[in-house]
Amino acid sequence: MLTIRTFRPDSPDYEEIRRLYDANFPDDERIPWNRLTAQLSQSRIMHVYYDEDTLIGLSYVFIHKDIAYLGYLAVEENLRNQGYGSKILQSIRKELSDCRIVIDIEVVDKNAENYEERKRRKDFYLHNGFISTGAGYYFYHVDYELLSANGIVKAEEYRDLILEHWGPIAANAVFRKIEQ
Predict the structure, then answer these.
(1) 3-class DSSP state for residue 51?
(2) Which residue(s) pair with 106 in the sheet?
(3) What are the contacts of 69-75 at 24+ separation with CB within 8 A?
(4) Mean pLDDT across the chain, nearest whole number?
(5) How far apart are alpha carbons 136 and 176 in whole angstroms?
(6) Which of 38, 125, 145, 153 is the most buried (most CB within 10 A)?
């Protein structure tokens, strides 16, 4: 049974949660841990997921108006492909049923070194009720595609969201239409 806890800096699993975060996202795609945890609030939420006492994963969501940006979703590597990621997404979609939920993933590019990983990631989200918005953006040498659930999030809305979330640096993102 999946148990959900809101992350707190005094969590007894603090180091294990930080390790999970660091291990699952490239350095250039991670908000520095101290900044991420210092900014947690009602609109910036990190949940930690357990199966009994076993740490399963984490999620980080930023809420802007009626849009929830799922910035990070991680499942322990040795527990993947056991349905935990889908259970976490179901939980997030239930909790945020009044919000449109948006994620950004690396564009599935057949020439990318990690093509299979990108394809699996996109298939996972599509299988869990997300759809392509038809929009993407280029930021810090990474080409992203936007997927959403509970309704479409337009590129302009996403731009407003990331400007609030990341600050002025987000103005450097170049948006474009994604070929399907």
Answers:
(1) strand
(2) 144
(3) 69/101, 69/102, 69/103, 69/158, 69/161, 69/162, 69/165, 70/101, 70/102, 70/103, 71/31, 71/165, 72/21, 72/24, 72/25, 73/103, 74/20, 74/21, 74/23, 74/24, 74/25
(4) 93
(5) 5
(6) 153
